[in-house]
Automatic annotation (TrEMBL):
GO terms for biological process: proton motive force-driven plasma membrane ATP synthesis. Its main location: membrane. It comes from the Bacteria. This is ATP synthase gamma chain. F-type ATPases have 2 components, CF(1) - the catalytic core - and CF(0) - the membrane proton channel. CF(1) has five subunits: alpha(3), beta(3), gamma(1), delta(1), epsilon(1). CF(0) has three main subunits: a, b and c. It comes from Enterococcus termitis. One of its GO terms (cellular component) is proton-transporting ATP synthase complex.
Length: 305
């Protein structure tokens, strides 16, 4: 019985240590989540402003595109930056899949990868029909293990990624689109809703198709643009597309921190439940040992009489 008591005590001690570790990790993830949510809010303000500017500058061209679509015309010669706005026949599709680099985030990665694989299986007959870009080591390793070619990958993002960190991969994605490596681009990731909930999303990034000419702001004074509106848009439209991808990365990171916090809270709660059950078992075993000792003492005293 003594050995059993010692074994239970050791299990209680080790579980308490585990609980302390998971509790600390929960607090760290909570702090990261707070920072990510603040960064996401700040980005939304920027995204709203740049969307407003782009919509205002291309309002006339968007209207022309609507007219061209309505009349079934493909005459876009006068709109030389149309490749960022005008859909073209889809020969290949590009996907950016955002996962974490590490584990301990519950079902965060499995949700993204499972649904992405299902989507690609439903939409494509072979790997020749799509190009894959992976952000996060978990996703990159997952696809490589299944023989799926990863055209480009990015690992080791910080907890609060800056645009400089992801500039190369987002620039590469937009350049691949411009060079017609693929004809449309989607980003697959988990969207952060709150600390307990995230939602798998597939968002179309290119061509830019969510701009509405009705959103264009009308100004009393007309702006003088230098060097020209066309030259500005040649630079602004790729930057806008890059900002959309960056926004998805920030959103995904926020969801990752929330998943990590939830996973560590669940682990801490489970550890506490195990400690409670082990404590009950220890007390029962100890009570049984004491009862046996008393019985032996009484029996020995009775034998001496």
């Amino acid at each position: 019985m003594g050995a059993s008591l010692n074994e239970i005590k050791q299990r209680i001690a080790s579980t308490k240590k585990t609980s302390q570790i998971t509790n600390a990790m929960q607090m760290v993830s909570g702090a990261k989540l707070t920072k990510s949510e603040a960064a996401s809010r700040s980005f939304q303000e920027y995204a709203s402003k740049i969307r407003s500017i782009v919509t205002h500058l291309v309002a006339a061209q968007l209207k022309d595109l609507e007219d061209l679509d309505n009349y079934g015309s493909d005459d876009t010669a006068e709109l030389h930056y149309h490749m960022m706005l005008k859909a073209r026949p889809v020969k290949k599709t590009g996907y950016i899949v955002i996962t974490s680099d590490k584990g301990l985030v519950g079902g965060y990665n499995s949700s993204i990868l499972k649904q992405t694989m299902k989507m690609m299986g439903d939409d494509h007959e072979s790997q020749e029909e799509f190009v894959l870009i992976a952000i996060g080591g978990t996703g990159a390793d997952f696809f490589k293990a299944r023989g799926i070619n990863v055209a480009y990958e990015l690992r080791g993002l910080t907890d609060q990624p800056s645009f400089d960190e992801v500039r190369k991969i987002v620039s590469t994605a937009t350049t691949m689109y411009e060079n017609e490596v693929f004809d449309e681009l989607y980003v697959c990731y988990n969207h952060h809703i709150n600390s307990l909930t995230s939602q798998f999303r597939v968002e179309k990034m290119l061509p830019i198709s969510d701009l509405d000419p009705e959103e264009a702001t009308t100004y009393e004074q007309e702006y003088i643009l230098e060097p020209s509106k066309e030259a500005i848009l040649d630079n602004l439209l790729p930057q806008y597309a890059e900002s959309l991808i960056y926004g998805a990365i920030i959103d995904a990171k926020t969801a990752e921190h929330a998943a990590g916090m939830t996973a560590m809270k669940t682990a801490t709660d489970n550890a506490q439940n195990i400690i409670s059950d082990l404590t009950i078992s220890y007390n029962r075993a100890r009570q049984g040992a004491i009862t046996q000792e008393i019985t032996e003492i009484v029996a020995g005293a009775a034998a001496l009489e």
